[in-house]
Amino acid sequence: MTAGLSLGVACLAAGLSIPAILHAQDTRAAARDPQPRTEAAEIRPTDIVAHAPPQEGYGAKLLRRVFIAAPAAGNPAVPPGIDRLPSPGQLFASPQLRKELVRTPALSRFFPGRVVGTIAPAGLTSRDELFAYIGRTREQLPLGFPVSGFGGARAPYTTIDAESVTTLRFTLACVVLLPLVIFLSVCARLSGESRARRLAALRLVGLSARDTMRVNAGESVVAAFVGAVIGVGVYVGVNEVVARVGLPGLHWYPADGRPGWETVAWCLVGCPALAWVVGQFSARRAAKSPIGVRRTGERRAPRKAGALLLVPGLGVIGGYCVLSVMGRDPSGGSASSLLVPGAVLLTGAGLVWGLAPVTAWLAERVAGSAKSLPLALAMRRTEVDPGASLRVVTGLVLLLFGASLTQGVLVELDQVSRRTDPLQEYRIELDQIDAAQREALERVPGVVDHVVSYRSWDPLDGSDVPQTSMVVATCAQLTAITRRASGCVDGKVMQLRDADSAFAYDPKPGERYAFALESGRKAMFTVPRERVEVRPWSVSVVASGALLVPPSLLPAHVAEAGGALTLVSGADPATVRKVLDGIGAVAPTAAVEPVGIVVESLAQLTVIRSLLAVGMVLGLVIGVAAFVVSVADRAMERRGQVAALALLGARAGTLRVVQVVQVVLPLAVGLGAALVTGWLAESSYLITGGGAVHWDWDALPLLFGCALGVLLIAGVASVPMVRRHVDPEHIRRD
């Protein structure tokens, strides 16, 4: 009981610390945010002047900077993490940024100055943040504002936005906390029959019912408290190690993950309290009727009231699914944001409490018609004591239910965080890269194609000169990067035309446009009559009205000032991150425009995926631990029954088949129900989310395969739990 509770408490502490880690990072980001002074508009000599430009992309990471002009005199406020303000030409950098500046000196373009110090953890959100305070003069900060101090109520940017944090907490509660409560309850009821006999013996030798309950509560609470202390210690040690390694997209300081007082209270007080409640419930029968404890064949029918929770839960979930099938859109509104989470929780609870009566009913029907002795024995045992089967399989059933919901959350986040098109474009200005970098960028892993485009000449004198763009590509390249391209002929200048384009700009045939050359001269292109009917993927370099010029007809030495290199890759988040990191490695100072996506959203999606993966791992650990503990406990409790069956002549193979069937039947029922209800819960979440995907058919084969794998592993793991050895002590007892 102590060992099991220590594992459960360690998982509980990990689950409760995830929001604390995110909150700690956002709190430090808010504490260093320069606050504009509002009482006077003019800048005084004693004022700090600051400028915080937007975040710059550096591969899939972000560069964050604060330019500061310190006052000539006085005691100015200092942001956390540094002991003084940087002077002009100096900068304080984060440890990770100092490493990047040494590795990539070209980054000094974003961070001008000499590094004179390192920012302490108090001024950084995470260990891998690329952040700096840069000292400048007031004349060098035309966009600067007077600062009243550092630290605001809200962070200028958060690790995860508030809406995603709410979704993450709910998902982790379903994936981790629900199975954890079941697991802790299982641990608190370990050796239930043996404990009941000991308590009954105490009751029969004269101990009062109240004192008997106190004895049981005392040993349960002590064991639970010791397990909770060990579990908190285990989590603290694991946090110290994992914090130094980090997760994909998320790194934190060990102090951020150390359990706070609320987490410690939940672990050291809540878990022993849960053990006390469960212990009081399980010991009630031994205290009130000690003689009845010996009558192991008498069992009450499982209560069916818990299964009624499925009615409102499935009613709400099924209602949204029916509305979607009817073609109606129930997304939006505050009602669905409350109904769907509540319905999911009710469905999960009904799935747990309804498993026992369903299993007992099914076992009774199967036993009545069974012709096989092992099957009949297994079903009669399950019919008599379905609660034991419930403790064995509940953790794995809830894990599959939570996996379905997690899949829905990932699909919904994936829809809102990236383009739904199969291709992703990255636009880089040609004047920001040299020839060697251009060749290297075209070979970045993940890039499947590339094209070059140019804007026509603009005198930049305020005059209204018609402009167009030119895409340098072959017909094969055009076909590869568009949804559809028809009528293209290689070797000819043609005009691109998208009939569905919302832009009214459409150069007329015969119009002439000039493109600047490096020599200062102009190359003239005439808009042809021949057109290529194209259908680009959303926003693209292949815009309606642009000229398609074959590489063989491109004039030599076109000015790069108006040109751009567009790289094309797959649109899945992993490929996008790989390509962005590859671009950052080749051209760290070039501005990259990932068309249609925001790097901040991509970074948030990476963090959410990592945290959901951690939740699934914790849920898997809890589910497997609950299964192993329950199966082992049942094997210990059934030693007397196995001994009696062995004396009656039951063979070892028969006993093993009985054990396997007793585990596999309720597990199959529970996993089947979890597969159906979980998929409906996922669908209702996607329907109310307002995304394009309402029915995640792709996840069904994976979840079904996982269910079959769990059944197979559970059946194999149940075989060694049966020992045919006849212990005389067990014969005397039973």
Provide an overview of this structure:
This protein has 734 residues and is α+β, with helices and mostly antiparallel strands. Helices cover 52% and strands 13% of the residues. The chain has 20 helices and 19 strands. It has helices at 2-31, 95-103, 162-188, 192-204, 209-245, 254-257, 261-288, 310-325, 334-353, 355-369, 373-384, 386-417, 435-442, 475-481, 573-586, 599-637, 639-647, 652-689, 699-718, 728-733, and strands at 34-36, 48-51, 56-58, 61-69, 90-93, 114-118, 130-135, 145-150, 423-429, 447-455, 469-472, 484-486, 494-497, 512-516, 522-526, 531-535, 547-549, 563-570, 592-594. Strands 12-16-13-17-11-10-18-9-19 form a nine-stranded mixed sheet, sandwiched between helices. Strands 1, 2, 3, 4, 5, 6, 7 and 8 form an eight-stranded mixed sheet that branches. Helix 3 runs parallel beside helix 16, helix 9 packs antiparallel against helix 12 (386-417) and helix 10 packs antiparallel against helix 11. It is globular and about 110 Å long.
